[in-house]
Every structure is written in structure tokens, then in C-alpha cells.
Design a protein that fits this description.
The structure is a single chain. Helices cover 22% and strands 27% of the residues. The strands form 3 sheets. Strands 7, 8, 9, 10, 11, 12, 13, 14 and 15 form a 9-stranded mixed β-sheet that branches. It has a 4-stranded antiparallel β-sheet with strand order 3-2-5-6, with no helix packed on it. The N terminus is likely disordered. It has 7 helices and 15 strands. By secondary structure, the chain is an alpha+beta fold. The termini are far apart. The longest helix is centred in the first third of the chain and has 9 residues. The chain has 3 domains: 54 residues, Structural Genomics Hypothetical 15.5 Kd Protein In mrcA-pckA Intergenic Region, Chain A (Roll); 92 residues, Pseudouridine synthase I, catalytic domain, N-terminal subdomain (Alpha-Beta Plaits); 80 residues, Alpha-L RNA-binding motif (Alpha-Beta Plaits), CATH 3.30.70.1560. Helix 1 crosses helix 2.
Amino acid sequence: MRMKQDLRVVSLPRALSKLGLCSRSQAERLVADGKVSVNGKVITSLSFRVDPSRDRFSVEGADVAKEKTFTYLLLNKPVDVVTTRVDERGRRTVYDLLKSERLAETAGHLFPVGRLDKDTSGALLFTNDSQLGERLTNPSSKFPKTYAVVCEGILDRETLSTLSDGITLDDGYTTLPARISKMFSEDDVSECEITIVEGKNRQIRRMFEQVGHPVLELQRIAIGPVRLGELRSGQFRKLSKEEIEQLKKR
């Protein structure tokens, strides 16, 4: 007679995701890198089975809480801060900025929704709601993100049209249509706002490089309905109830 399968037992990455620690793919990387312990023992096997209701988990030495209380934060990431938990080169990380009495133990359990490269500043969401995080970063969601761009040279109408319609990047990928607004040029420098619905690696910089206008400064000013507003560089705030509801409608 075949034993009935215990439906509570799942793979370790799936358990971490279900607990709201991070996305499934992020959990797989944490496990593979030896940063996850189960009942005090480091586990590196992605297929290791656990019972989330009974087993104890820790990530990078921090115990993982099992309650389903979700936190949603917006950080204004400065330039030269990297989007990672620990940097082997000793650079400041986004988690250094989240260290605060207001967050207590919560900060270590939050994960970034997407990334910003070291040279780009601006809006970066953090949450422990893995379902929302995965939905917003799924390419099929076409979730809009708006950037303020300062670039070399004067952007003419033809160049703006090329950027808006979609441009073929250096790797052969053709970007989806973008929306460009608030155009301003002076002293051989141009400023504009561009909204894209995808997130290829360094996409904005590569788009402007391709049309001969290298980016000098880049800041993400909005993620869907969530805008930076007056949030100062290096500071964070909790999302409002309305902002959370709008994100969940996507």
C-alpha cells in the first residue's frame, strides 16, 4: 500500500518563498551559496525537503519568522550603493540603508523587487510578499518604470522617435515601445523622462548609447503608481495602503 504524501513537505527554496522571505529564484541562489540553515545545519541542496510548519530556518545567520505579516518599503537608492545583501568588495549595500530601529528584525527578511545598478539612483521597492514581488518582476506583466535621464548631446525629434518606437540593442534584442516626456536641452546636454515596460540589464543606458547619447545621470523616479516624490536620497518609507492596493491590481 502506497504511503500518502505529506503535502506540507516542500523543497527548501519553495518553503522560503512561501514564508515570504524572497522570490523562488532568489531562494535558490541563497541555498546554492550556502547561506541557508535548516534546524541549525547549512543546506546547499535545492531538492532538500522541509516542513515549513515544523522546521526552523535561518538565512545568513538571521532566523526567519514564520508569520505572514507583509512589509512594503520604497527606498531612494543613492549612486554607488549596490543591490545585494553582502558585497565581497566591501561596498555599501541597500541593506546597510535599511538598518533602522523602525524595521527591527524585519529588514533582513525583505528582498528587493528588481534591481538598480551601482551607477543608477532612485526608486527601489522592498517587500517580504514573494507573490507580489514575482508578479511585478515577471516580464509578462509589462510593469511600467519611469526614469529621469541626463545624457550627452541634443536629442532631436528623429532620435526621440527611435527611442520611443523600440531600438535594437548591441545584443540584437529590440526593445518594446517606450514613452518619453518632459524633454529639455541646453549646453549640449539633454534631460528627459522615459517610461519602459521591461527591465533588461542596463537597458536605459544601452538604449541611449545606441543612439549616440551616452547617459550622464540616471534616476528611477517611479515604479508604476509609486513615485519617489520628496523622498531624500538614502531614505526609505513605507508604502501607503492605496499604493499597495494599486500594485496588487497589476
